[in-house]
């Protein structure tokens, strides 16, 4: 326990206790505001993704053009390999 020149306990003065309480209260308020802001931003991102998905710019349902092209290329390669195999059987 610290004692000042006047003989009072410096750790338990009302001014310091209320200042510590205000500091804790302010820190809590800032942390709460930060969490609220982060939650709001997350909700905005979720809404944007839902809109993109619903209105077609986020193409996750069905086959995409890339998948269709890959399937066509795969069939062409398969046909070429079958032709090469049949030519080797003839020779």
Key descriptive features of the protein:
0% strand, 91 residues, mainly alpha, 2 domains
Q: How would you describe this protein?
A:
- It contains 2 helices and no strands.
- The mean pLDDT is 81.
- With 91 residues, it is mainly alpha-helical.
- The radius of gyration is 35 Å and the shape is rod-shaped.
- It folds into 2 domains: 60 residues; 30 residues.
- Helices cover 74% and strands 0% of the residues.
Which helices and strands appear, and what pairs or packs with what?
Blueprint: H1 14-54, H2 65-90
Short description:
It holds the Pfam family Med22. By secondary structure, the protein is mostly helical.
Query: How would you sum up the major sheet?
Result: none
Quaternary structure annotation = single chain
Give the helix level as a range of percent.
over 70%
The number of helical elements comes to 2
Could you give the count of β-strands? 0
Estimated share of beta-strand residues: under 5%
């Amino acid at each position: 326990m610290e004692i000042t020149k006047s003989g009072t306990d410096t750790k338990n003065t009302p001014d310091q206790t209320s200042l510590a309480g205000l500091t804790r209260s302010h820190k809590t308020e800032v942390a709460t505001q930060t969490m609220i802001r982060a939650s709001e931003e997350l909700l905005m991102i979720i809404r944007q993704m839902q809109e993109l998905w619903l209105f077609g710019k986020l193409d996750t349902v069905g086959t995409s053009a890339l998948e269709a092209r890959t399937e066509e290329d795969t069939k062409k390669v398969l046909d070429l390999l079958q032709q090469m195999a049949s030519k080797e059987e003839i020779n």
